[in-house]
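Changelog note: in this version the structure field was regenerated for every chain. One regenerated record is shown below for reference.
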Amino acid sequence: MHYGLGIDAGGTYTDAVIIRGSDGAVVDSKKSFTTYPDLQEGIRSVLDSIDKEYLKDVNLVSVSTTLSTNSLLEGTGVPVGLITVGEQPVEKVFPTQHVKWVAGGHDTKGDEEFPLDVDASGNLH
């Protein structure tokens, strides 16, 4: 059995959820206080509270932070950059002047379709 782990560091709480891959059922979820500006402590705390039996079989992790999203949308914080990975660049304006396209990608099963161009990341501006 495989599971997915989702983590979100929000303004007040950091949430973690374990989802069973076979049917998408939530099998465990926990919450801890967000530790701003060092989010690692809050993330570590919420992960320590998740059932370890599920964690050992996690094969997909998704991490997001509402704090970062809100900072971008509100125009607060410091300038940021965007690194996109994939073979199909999107033709649109992003909320930053610093965008880098890097070749690479995986299919819907998580298997590598195109190797990551690690050399491209050395020249971010």
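Spot check on this record: Residues 3 and 23 are 10 Å apart (CA to CA). Strands lie at 3-9, 13-20, 26-33, 58-65, 81-85, 98-102, 105-106, 112-114.
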